[in-house]
Each structure stands twice: as structure tokens, then as C-alpha cells.
Amino acid sequence: MRTIDLSPLYRSFIGSDHLASLVDAAARSEKQSTYPPYNIELLSDDKYRVTMAIAGFSKDDVTIQVEENTLTITGNKKVEGKENAERKYLHKGISERNFERKFQLGDHVKVLAADMENGLLHIDMERVIPDAKKPRTIEIGSRLLENERSQ
């Protein structure tokens, strides 16, 4: 594994310990399985889509959960029992194994919707920056009102 020296970042950024934890999380996720395959698309400046190829899974087999900036997609295929035991494959290339895939979401990224069509799971997301976090121009010589100071 490569070692990354983050000391130049610590000199330039305040709160870069958060950045270090993100790099550590990325290093851990490299060890993650490549199943199921997925794409991450940029639809517009603040809109994203994750598309996962989950052939053989139904809507009831898939769980999508967001907790503390982590999007977790879990697939648990229910075993059909007797019907699967009687099948004899000459070649089995369609994987039906259970999976769990996690994505680290950026600040203020919200999951809008999820849809499944033709074996593809689409999850749409958007970055919604609150007004308090948006840049604003301060006029020189202006005085802040009391309620603006508390923000």
C-alpha cells in the first residue's frame, strides 16, 4: 500500500483532519469487492446518479439506506429452495450472490430517488447547499445586523 504524506495539507487547510479520514476510508474501500459493477454519472453541476447492474435481483431483494453521509446498498437474494436445487447449469455466468456496496457522500448531498429497470438500479442524488453556507459579499463599512451575527 502507498503511504501518502498529508502534512502540506495540514499547513494550508483548517479542519483537514476530516480530509485525512476520507483518504483512510478510500484506502479501505479499495479492498472492497468489485461486485456488483456500477457507474457514477454527473448529470449536471449538482446532480449525480449511481447506476448498479444487479441482474436477477427484484425490488424486494434490495435495501437502500443513508446514514451520516454514507449511502449503503444491500442485496439479499432469497433462496428459492427446491426450484434452485433442481437446476443444472452448463455455464453459470450470472452472479446471484448477496452484496453490500457503500458510497461516501459529500456534504449536503441528498438522495432524491431510486428506480430499478431492466436489471439496473438507478439512484439519483443532488447537492443542496443551504443559504447559510453559500458565499456572500460583505460591503466594506457595512455593519452586520444582530440576527446575521448569530448565523
Automatic annotation (TrEMBL):
Family matches, as Gene3D superfamilies: 2.60.40.790
Keyword Manganese appears in the UniProt entry: no
Statement: the UniProt record of this protein carries the keyword Iron: no
Recorded superkingdom: Bacteria
Keywords: Stress response
Chain ranges of the SHSP domain: 29-143
Coiled coil: none
Family to which the UniProt record says this protein belongs: Belongs to the small heat shock protein (HSP20) family.
Protein name (record): Hsp20 family protein
